[in-house]
Give the backbone structure.
Amino acid sequence: MTTPDLPHLNSLVASPRVLKVLSELHAEATAEGPYLNPASSLDKFVALDTDKCAFVYLLLRSMGARNVVEAGTSFGLSTIYLALAVGQNASAAGASGKVIATELEAHKAARARAHWARAGPDVEPWIELREGDLRETLKTDLPESIDFLLLDIWTPLALPALKLIQSNLKKGAIVVADNVEAAKDGYRELVEYIETPENGFKATSITFSGGLGFYVYLGQE
């Protein structure tokens, strides 16, 4: 199945069922328009753009990533890409895998679960949704070795989320932060932490719309 209106979806190995759900959700997200502040995002998707989603999916496939954390799930659109990649990687390796998704708002969590159910068995079984404040929900029960962290959340929570899981990041793990240029002031503390050598990261940015922070964890000496 090809998707001429959303060509980035052609980057995926996905069933017609999953592609249909993604097409519909991206159309809904696009129709909503951008959000300007946290208060205006309460009923919006706050999802990665399709090109960023495709990039993250391909990145996870190339890494063989099987343990992923998503800080900021919203209505679960980006999570579908993460879970699709994790499920394919885990199945190919004959191993376990999961996406730990986090969402504060109960109504968003409910809609996310409904979207994942629509996407079906290629997606839904690979997601563990932790509902509530991630500063509490990510304190315990993390995989020993985390491959990837997606930060697509209210910017003051980005650094706390990273610090909570950092001790479980494997060497070579990747952290991606959305809109690092568009929300530069909000991400200042995160960027300062990432750029402090003793914290173990190397950083660059990718010129997607709004900027995409790309950080590799090399470990702390």
